[in-house]
Design goal:
elongated; alpha+beta; Jelly Rolls; 9 helices; 5-stranded antiparallel β-sheet; transmembrane helix; about 375 residues; about 35% helix
């Protein structure tokens, strides 16, 4: 019975690790796929946890914010390069845009850079600080430091700047610098002073007031492909320094007339060749000295430079020729007007004679009919 009972036992072990199914005589193999899937799922979850931990614990990469660059009003044909710079072209900055002083925002949008901020930065009370300055010009000053306005020049050629100083005082002045080299200055109550100089792409023009009121009337650019080459031309701008005494030195800026005329044949030599003598030139670092300090009092003396006299003389001649031309045009127009008035009078007299003749003929015809 025991043997019979064992023979009827539904599951008996079989060699090979399997089980014998009742009534079928086949083996059931162990399910290894479920264990593999479970292990793979646990490993995937563990990997996701590790990745999330790395992302959370790793600090974000810091990307510095680029400061906004000044917007420069450029003429047509002046395009930026692929590297983000500016292609050197014959087209310079816009003369009309940079001569628009209607607001400080307009000036900054055109390219002017202000070195200070304050209530007197843009066109303060005209009656107090700029009574003789035209309304179309810019004027401003700083109480604490030397007020400075800069402009990054684009293209290559010549620029002509009309600037001035509308304040009084023995130490009052406004100085123009090109790449840190003084070019011209305006002494007290010099409302309009002209300076013309060659420039290349990237040169920096700075106008600095010292105990004065900075005035900018206009700026004009004359650009051409043949004006300046890519490399510096020797002899165009030369700076000579000589000792005057133990405490002061003079810097003479000489513009070569031959080199300037070879670059711009349309410019008279009296305009291009100029010599400006400045005593004790102010360095770039010295422009931040506070007013009233001992260093500040050792500024450039208020002596009229020869170049200023030459430039003013040339501009006066130009103004005289322009006024003469205008007067000639006015005289010609007045003559034309008089001739037209005379012709109109003749036409009117002729019409009156025709009317009188017509009336006379009608009267004679009426008398003939009456007879």
């Amino acid at each position: 019975m025991l043997a019979g009972g064992l023979s009827k036992w539904p599951y008996q072990p079989v060699r090979g690790g399997g089980e014998q199914v009742e009534g079928r005589g086949r083996r059931r193999e162990p399910d290894h796929g479920s264990a593999w899937r479970l292990g793979a799922t646990l490993g995937l979850l563990f990997g996701v946890v590790i990745v999330i931990s790395i992302v959370i614990c790793t600090p974000a990469k810091f990307t510095p914010r680029r400061l906004p660059q000044p917007r420069l009003m450029l003429d047509d044909g002046f395009q930026p390069s692929a590297a983000g710079g500016v292609l050197e072209s014959a087209h310079c900055l816009s003369s009309s845009g940079l001569s628009d002083f209607s607001s400080q925002e307009q000036m900054e949008m055109s390219g002017w850079l202000f070195g200070w901020t304050g209530p007197d930065t843009f066109r303060p009370a005209k009656d107090l600080y700029a009574s003789s300055v035209p309304y179309s010009a810019y004027w401003g000053f700083s109480e604490s430091v030397d007020g400075e306005i800069a402009l990054v020049l684009r293209g290559r050629g010549f620029f002509t700047l009309d600037f001035g100083n509308s304040w009084t005082g023995p130490e009052s002045q406004v100085v123009v610098y090109l790449n840190g080299v003084p070019q011209m200055r305006a002494s007290a109550n010099a409302i309009s002073v002209f300076v013309k100089a060659p420039f290349r792409d990237g040169d920096v023009l700075r106008i600095v007031e010292s105990n004065g009121v900075l005035v900018i009337n206009s700026i004009f650019f004359d650009c051409a492909d043949t004006l300046l080459s890519q490399t510096p031309v020797p002899g165009i701008l030369q700076v000579h320094t000589q000792e005057v005494d133990q405490t002061a030195s003079s810097t003479t800026i000489t513009t070569s007339a031959d080199a300037a005329q070879s670059m711009d044949a349309n410019v008279p030599s009296t305009t291009v060749a100029s010599t400006a003598t400045l005593t004790t030139p102010v360095a770039m670092e010295d422009m931040r000295i506070s007013k009233g300090s001992p260093q500040h009092k050792k500024r450039i003396r208020q002596e009229p430079a020869e170049s200023e006299i030459k430039v003013l003389r040339v501009e006066a001649e130009k103004q005289e020729r322009s006024e003469l031309k205008i007067s000639e045009q006015v005289a010609e127009e007045s003559q034309k007007l008089k001739a037209l008035e005379h012709l109109e009078k003749q036409e009117l007299l002729k019409a009156q004679r025709d009317m009188e003749l017509k009336d006379k003929l009608e009267e004679e015809l009426h008398e003939v009919r009456h007879d």
